[in-house]
From TrEMBL:
Ranges where the Gasdermin PUB domain occurs: 251-411
GO molecular function: phosphatidylinositol-4,5-bisphosphate binding; phosphatidylinositol-4-phosphate binding; phosphatidylserine binding
Organism: Pelodiscus sinensis (Chinese softshell turtle)
Main location: membrane
Protein name: Gasdermin A
Keywords (A to Z) from UniProt: Cell membrane, Coiled coil, Cytoplasm, Lipoprotein, Membrane, Necrosis, Palmitate, Transmembrane, Transmembrane beta strand, Transmembrane helix
Location relative to the cell: Cell membrane; Cytoplasm
Amino acid sequence: MFYKVTKQLVKQLVPDGDLLPVCNLIDQDHFRPLCLVRRKPKKAFCRTLHYAKTGFRLWDILVPGEDSTHLDVQDSGPITVVDCVDGTLKGSVKVPVDFGRMEAMGAASTYQVKSIKMKKVHVSPANLELLKKERKINMNSSFIKQLRESRENLYVIYEAVQALEETTFFKSNTTEGSILNEIYVHFSLKGTRGSKRAIIIPKDCVLAYRILPLIIADESWDLSYHPGGKTFVADGATEEYDYSYDGGIDDLKTEVENKCAELSQLSTDLRAKFLKSIIAVIIDSDLLQELKFKLEEAFEDADKCELKSDNPDLEDLLNNLQDSAGSINLFLVDPVLYTLHALEELTEDQLLRLAQSVEKKIVPKQLELVKSILKQEASSLDANIISSLQEEELNITKAMIEMDGVKLQRNGLYPIKTGDMAAFAAFSALYVALYALHLLSRSE
């Protein structure tokens, strides 16, 4: 829920800008001005780059000593953002498998009222210039040695957006109907379920930030105003590959096939268990965040992480991501986490349509349609696929696929917008989600 809030705020404050949302409340203190961050591996479907905390600040890697420069963190006046949402999603979802089914029918109502006061804080560039002359990089730091050996780039946060006062965000859900889940363990729940969730954002909580690449040459350092700047320039650090829109799907196709290769090797029994959990997180965005956070922790330190959850929908998945001794299988965690990152890029309505598409067994057709969109070409095959869809199936597909520049008609896909990086990223995430669901829902 916190990430949804920060993403929406960033979109309202700086659409298509370089302001980055903080992903989770627990780590927000590591994204203040002068904190050091590193880039997470880039995915073809992510329009925004993501950065991870390091636990270090700029002065932690400088040679110890006194300096005359006081790094004041200056702030701007207050900014108020108000966003009210009132909506209802209705749908029916059933996920058939060879030996069970998962069914959800009813309506989910949400009402959110959000108002938050913020301020922008930043470090004076003039003070940073003085600090560069007075303090050098400590090249004997074990942190710097590790980064230099791995040729990993480092970034300095120079600006952040913080909450000016404590703020509470509410989200309420009401689900009517029935839920039936039958995979090994059978249970049913009928009636009405209501829930209210709230997240309290504390005063001074960091919501978003801006970064500059840190450049290190011998013991000297600088900040680059070019986004592609490399930290260890003297070592010939390798270029971080950055996907950009070039009209081709080849890079994305190669990436998703490599990332999801382990899923294709699962037995029919395990694919059904994984599918059950993925559908559960598709239906419940908070559950998606919980699972994503657990798996990211596993990647950071598999030896110290335990994959456990009180939610029964995640039990089979988490149990099969580790052996009986608790050792985590990162080769399996990776494709699941990759899929979750793609799902996170989709809207709530798209997620509901995805679950319905699995039930209707139209995921393979939708996968081909999205592939055509990414290739930026309409063909007779598209028209044949669309005409083969029943009216309800077509409506589901339209609701999921139709975005800016793309419309579904009985005679094909028209028109198709070209050269739009935002559209490419959006359809890429949908392609990844459909690909993973297609692998997991196969019966052979």
